[in-house]
Amino acid sequence: MATMPTVTAPSNQDLKWLYLSLNGRINRSKYWLFGVVAFIIIGIIAGVLDMVLGLADPTTGYGPITMIAGLVMIYPGICVLGKRWHDRNKSAWWILIGLIPIIGGIWTLIECGFLRGTVGDNRFGADPLGGK
After folding, report:
1. Kindly report the CA angle at 130 between 22 and 106, in degrees rounded to 5?
2. Which range among 29-33, 35-39, 74-78, 127-131 shows the weakest confidence by mean pLDDT?
3. Most C-beta atoms within 10 A of its C-beta, which of 82, 109, 118, 128?
């Protein structure tokens, strides 16, 4: 009978590497789970705190907690996205393509969100899926 694989939570060291280092590669699932989804949840929590505490600006909907959370998430967001570009065997400088209106966001979404990374090792490290 087949056994279910064990899922372990990432250690503090893994999270430190993920959010504070530009080195290495991550696969699509880690990008979506620990990058996109995690940052959306943090943004929602910050926004709710601003509303509950009465700090949200009625015209913009943002408050100081949301703004601080957004600023704090810039560097970790760059690190996660950079690792995803590395998995595609491209430099983290490709993050800058996101500055091109409309096309840059679509390009980043397709490359980093939907396309598989390089199979096997590349110049940025080992395949996070262990492929050869």
Report:
1. 55
2. 127-131
3. 82
- Among 43, 51, 44, 14, which residue's Cα sits nearest to residue 30? 14
Residue tagged 């704090």 (tokens)? 72
For residue 122, list its beta bridge partners. 125
Look up residue 122 and give its DSSP letter. B
Residue 92 has pLDDT above 60, yes or no: yes
Under a CB-based contact definition with an 8 Å cutoff, are residues 15 and 26 in contact? no
For tokens 């065997």, what's the residue? Answer: 89
Would you kindly state where each structural domain of the chain is located, as residue ranges?
Answer: 25-114
Say which amino acid occupies 122: N
How many other β-carbons are positioned within 10 Å of the β-carbon of residue 17?
16
The answer to whether 99 touches 64, Cβ cutoff 8 Å, is no
Number of H helices, E strands in the chain: 6, 0
32: closest CA among 22, 24, 40? 40
